[in-house]
Design a protein that fits this description.
Layout: E1 2-5, H1 13-21, E2 31-35, H2 43-49, E3 53-56, H3 61-121, H4 130-161, E4 169-172, H5 173-190, E5 194-199, E6 205-208, H6 210-226, E7 233-240, E8 244-250, H7 285-296, E9 299-304, E10 310-317
Parallel strand pairs: 1-2, 2-3, 5-7
Antiparallel strand pairs: 4-6, 7-8, 8-10, 9-10
Helix pairs in contact: 3-4, 4-7, 5-6, 6-7
Length: 323
């Protein structure tokens, strides 16, 4: 606690407050100014300089003690709050490091399990019986699902630590979409879902990080298939203008509950809707998509279609914002 008169020799109270506000050792300490009635005009300057309170002279013991105790109590509460925040920051940093290490260590064996299972599925070791074929297919699907979750966790860890690298190159946005459609065509076909691409863009070239943007496209198509009923339709609409290129993914599912839009792009945020064929959903994917779009200086939006179903749109600028 600092008690200071406004009128002092050499350095007055206002100058001292300005000095204290720039001194790391003093800037958080509360300052109470003493002033006479004739100096009231100087109080606004004192507050601007960093004073917390004032007492009019002559000083009264009861008032002085009350004001001092009040500001000391406030100061202690602020310090305790800052200490708690610093402790939570350290705990969060430790959690992020653990998440990154654990995800990295889990990824390698999962990749091996998937690779061996896919090799078995190719029947290069010999034909598989029907029951064996089903078992191998189940292993492949489970390992791919777990690998997607682990990669999402790795992305979360990198985003939280601010270490996500960006390697943008000018490339065709449409080609990335075509590749994603190929990857998801089998799952869509198993549910009788038709994936239709409609390209209304004149030019889909943009400066993008291929790996990260592919994650976004994969997630949007995967979600559209997961949450759509059998024998429905998913449309992928590509649009552009002179500055941006956009992909809209439209499905015929249940749509997004109106009261749950706020949870869509939060970490581990899920809506009450469930995948229609028992597919897994971690609640991480859209959070990662949102961070990737932010990293590119782009936008991701979600809305319900008037005719039913949901629409997710991602928009990229042809050039990154820092260029």
């Amino acid at each position: 606690m600092i008690l200071c008169d406004i009128i002092m020799p050499e350095m007055d109270g206002i100058e001292f407050c300005s000095y204290a506000s720039l001194n790391p050792r003093l800037e958080e300490i509360p300052i109470i100014m003493f002033t006479g009635l004739s100096n009231m005009d100087s109080l606004s300057q004192a507050y601007e300089a960093g004073a917390d309170d004032y007492i009019i002279k002559p000083l009264r013991q009861v008032e002085l003690i009350s004001r001092v105790e009040h500001h000391i109590d406030e100061y202690r509460q602020k310090r305790e709050a800052l200490d708690r925040i610093q402790k939570l920051d350290k705990q969060n940093e430790s959690k992020t490091k653990f998440l990154g290490v654990a995800s990295h260590d889990l990824r390698n064996p999962l990749v091996s399990i998937r690779g061996i299972s896919q090799y078995l599925d190719s029947e290069k070791f010999g034909p598989l019986k029907e029951g064996q074929k089903e078992l191998v297919t189940t292993i492949i699907q489970a390992s791919e699902s777990m690998l997607t979750l682990v990669e999402d966790l790795m992305d979360v860890s990198m985003f939280e630590s601010g270490q996500i690298p960006l390697s943008p190159e000018v490339q065709s946005f449409e080609e990335l979409i075509d590749h994603a459609i190929t990857l998801h065509s089998a799952n869509a076909s198993n549910k009788g879902i038709q994936l239709e691409k409609v390209n209304r863009a004149k030019d889909t070239a943009a400066k993008l990080d291929e790996k990260l943007v592919s994650r976004v496209i994969d997630n949007l198509i995967s979600n559209a298939v997961k949450f759509s009923n059998r024998d429905t339709h998913v449309k992928l609409l590509i649009e552009d203008d002179d500055i941006t290129v956009t992909l809209k993914v439209e499905d015929e599912g249940p749509g997004i509950p109106e009261k749950e839009f706020h949870a869509l792009f939060k970490g581990f945020g899920r809506t009450s809707n469930m995948p229609t064929s028992g597919e897994s959903s971690s609640g991480i994917g859209l959070f990662v998509c949102h961070r990737i779009m932010q990293r590119h200086g782009g936008d991701i939006l979600a809305e319900n279609r008037s005719e039913g179903g949901a629409r997710f749109a991602i928009t990229f600028k042809r050039k990154l914002t820092d260029e």
